[in-house]
Amino acid sequence: MGETHTPLTRTEVERLYKEQGTLAGADLRGADLSDIYLITADLSGADLSRADLTRAHMYGANLQGARLFKANLEQANLNGADLRNCDLLGAIFRETKMSHVILDKNFVVINEREAQEAAHRGDKEESHRKYEEARDVYRSLKVVLHLQIPSKDVGILFVREMSATRKLMPLFSLRRLFSKFLHVSLGYGEQIGRIIGSIFVLMIGSAILYGFEGVRVGDEILRYGSGDGFFVTIAEMLYFSVVVFTTVGFGDMTPYGPLSKITMMVEGFTSTVYMAMLIIALYKRSMAR
Predict the structure, then answer these.
(1) Cα–Cα distance between 66 and 63 in angstroms, integer?
(2) Which of 128, 172, 177, 243 has a Cα-to-Cα distance from 27 of 20 to 30 A?
(3) Does domain 10-179 match CATH 2.30.30?
(4) Residue 102 DSSP SS3
């Protein structure tokens, strides 16, 4: 039979902290720490699994590598706390204050790193389980940090959540491939740089395709090898592509041939999606300022 663990009381933890000046690596599993004052305390590597930290004052606390598995942090103050490499699976973040918290680079939680390590070992079952944990942690953080940190950071958490969800899908399924496309091309609607980059790729790619069969300009067909020179032709195709993308439709140039017509339809439809996503992303970013 294993030794029974007796959770520490708040008084015992406060006395321990006063005597040692640190709680790094402390076994605080299941401890009743409600309303405790641990401002700027060193709790790195501490095990706070299932601990009651309701209304705990932990401003600026060092929780690097700590385990907060199913800890109750309802109404706790974690403003400025260091949560790098912290296990947050199942933690309760109801009304938790978490402004200016320090998270891992690119907000990657430990569960996702463990999932990647398991995948490298070939342990698919463990990797799948860890990605599920990562998805749940990202979702919890996204909800509690909404309006507490810049919207772009909340957007990063959403992207990480969607990425973890994608990796739970069958490897070559259409859903996973489509999710990957949304990530690369739109950043799941959160990464403005990717959206703008995809817009330029679409316009330039379409311009190149238009040049094969050409476009009609008056009574002439302008395309590669038509005699106007490559750079003149590609410049005209780019102009036509921008007109199609922006749905201006001057009518001075029209597609010629099946390939140009299909390209025009695809570009015109896709442009509405990209512009809508860009406007939404810009709106969310501006509203957060």
Answers:
(1) 5
(2) 128
(3) no
(4) strand
Angle at 216 between CA 214 and CA 220, to 5 degrees: 100
Global pTM reads 0.86
> If we measure between CA atoms, which residue out of 113, 119, 157 comes closest to residue 136?
157
pLDDT digits (tens, 9 = 90+) for 75-119: 999 999 999 999 999 999 999 999 999 999 889 999 999 999 999
Whether 10-179 shares its CATH topology with 191-287 is answered no
Instruction: Tell me how far apart the alpha carbons of residues 116 and 61 are, in angstroms, rounded to a whole number.
Output: 28
Q: Which residue has the tokens 């810049």?
A: 150
Nearest Cα to 280, choosing from 192, 198, 194? Answer: 192
Decide if 76 contacts 92 (C-beta within 8 A): no
Report in angstroms the alpha-carbon separations of 80 from 40, 148, 154, 182: 9, 11, 16, 33
How would residue 288 be classed by pLDDT, with cut points 50, 70 and 90? low
Quote the pLDDT of residue 1. Answer: 47
Identity (one letter) of the amino acid at 170? P
Q: What angle do CA 51, 55, 60 make, to 5 degrees?
A: 90
SS3 106: helix
Residues ≥6 apart with Cβ < 8 Å to 97: 75, 76, 77, 78, 79, 148
Distance separating alpha carbons of residues 119 and 48, to the nearest angstrom: 28
Question: Tokens 């939680």 identify what position?
Answer: 109
List residues bridging with 42 in a β-sheet.
62
As assigned by CATH, the class of the 191-287 domain is: mainly alpha
